[in-house]
Each structure stands twice: as C-alpha cells, then as structure tokens.
C-alpha cells in the first residue's frame, strides 16, 4: 500500500523490514523523544517496547497490512496510522489511530493531512463501512482539534472515565460518515 497526497508532501505506505528498525528508533528506541506517549492514552500505562517486542508484535503491522501505514512528511518518517474494527468480525465499525512521534513535527498540519488521506483510504478499502472514527481524551487538545479541522463530528463525550496524574479526564469520540466526506480522490491509491 502507498498513498500520496496531491496537495501536501505526505505519503502513507507500508515499509520494508530494513526500515522497521528506524520506525522503532523514532518511536520507542533509546534516543526517542517519548513525549508523544503523554498524549497517546497515557492512562493505559503501555510499556516502552524493546526492539524484539516491536518487530515481532506491533511493528510487524507496518510491513504489509492494509490497515496500518507509516507517515512520511517530505520523505522523512514521522509517524503511523492504524485502523481496527471495534466490532470484530462484523466489520462495520471502523476506528483509526494516529501518532506523530517527534514534537518538532507537531503543529505543522501533518496529522490532519495524514488523517484526511487515511480516512479516504479506509473508505476506499472498506466499501461496506458507513463511518470511520477515533477515540481520544480531554487531555489531548491536538486530537480534538484534528477531528474538527477535517470535518468530523464530536459524537460522544463520556465524562470522567480516564484517570491519569491524579485526576479524571473525559473520553471523547469523533466520527465521519461516508456521505459527509468529499471522496473526490485527493488520494492516489497504490501509486
């Protein structure tokens, strides 16, 4: 899979095994800036993955899975996008995730442009779904702004269900329906 934006220097694609170690290095490696983990569901206390854990587990998705890709901005590897079916084998409720790893790449519009590209890819890849969404939390202002910026609707706010750093936070859900999205392709699938 390879997706190319016509309007921004963003590409989302699967990567080679040789590139996988670099992805681990910028996300979990010994010199990685782990600030991103403060916003990516920190209340789950997910572990920092070692290279063997990453390559055999989560990282393996980025090699050839249509529901996971690596974001490149101006040809630099900067983050990842994923998707999963909330309803399992029924395959009608699709959620996605995104992470831009290095703070130097935040506030450049990379996340919103990559998310827009990724959502279009998901609707294209899964023609039977009616909606794509994601869940964030009230401590992640960038993710809440991202949804609104790309035309998603705030669908739910479950109050005080996430506990982190001694306080409760809200869980917030965003979604977009197929008919709300302009699918006049700004995506070049398999370019």
Which labels suit this protein?
single chain, 191 residues, alpha+beta, eight-stranded mixed beta sheet, 5 helices, 24% helix
Structure in a nutshell:
This protein has helices spanning 17-27, 51-56, 61-64, 110-125, 141-149, and strands at 2-4, 10-13, 68-73, 76-85, 94-100, 131-137, 153-164, 167-177. It is α+β, with helices and mostly antiparallel strands and 191 residues long.
Structure write-up:
The structure is a single chain. The chain has 191 residues and is α+β, with helices and mostly antiparallel strands. It is built from five helices and eight strands, in the order ββαααβββαβαββ. The chain has helices at residues 17-27, 51-56, 61-64, 110-125, 141-149; strands spanning 2-4, 10-13, 68-73, 76-85, 94-100, 131-137, 153-164, 167-177. It has an eight-stranded mixed β-sheet with strand order 1-2-3-4-5-6-8-7, sandwiched between helices. The termini are close together. Mean pLDDT is 94; it is low at 185-191.
Q: Percent helix among the residues?
A: 10-25%
Roughly what is the average pLDDT, rounded to an integer? 94
First-last Cα distance: 8 Å
Widest sheet: strand ordering: 1-2-3-4-5-6-8-7
What portion of residues belong to β-strands? Answer: 25-35%
Rg calculated over all Cα atoms = 16 Å
Structural class: alpha+beta
Largest sheet, if any? 8 strands, mixed
Map the helices and strands.
Layout: E1 2-4, E2 10-13, H1 17-27, H2 51-56, H3 61-64, E3 68-73, E4 76-85, E5 94-100, H4 110-125, E6 131-137, H5 141-149, E7 153-164, E8 167-177
């Amino acid at each position: 899979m390879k997706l190319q934006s016509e309007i921004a220097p963003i590409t989302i694609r699967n990567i080679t095994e040789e590139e996988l170690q670099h992805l681990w290095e910028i996300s979990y490696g010994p010199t990685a800036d782990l600030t991103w983990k403060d916003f990516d569901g920190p209340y789950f206390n997910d572990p920092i993955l070692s290279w063997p854990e990453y390559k055999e587990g989560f990282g393996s998705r980025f090699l050839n899975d249509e529901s996971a890709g690596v974001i490149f901005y101006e040809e630099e590897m900067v983050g990842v996008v994923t998707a999963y079916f909330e309803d399992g084998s029924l395959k009608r409720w699709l959620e996605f995730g995104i992470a831009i790893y290095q703070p130097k790449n935040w506030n450049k519009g990379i996340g919103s442009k990559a998310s827009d590209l990724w959502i279009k890819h998901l609707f294209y890849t899964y023609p039977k779904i009616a909606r794509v969404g994601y869940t964030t939390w009230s401590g992640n202002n960038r993710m809440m702004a991202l949804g609104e910026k790309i035309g998603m609707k705030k669908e739910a706010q479950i109050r005080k269900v996430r506990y982190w750093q001694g306080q409760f936070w809200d869980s917030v859900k965003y979604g977009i329906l197929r008919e709300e999205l302009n699918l006049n392709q700004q995506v070049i699938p398999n370019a």
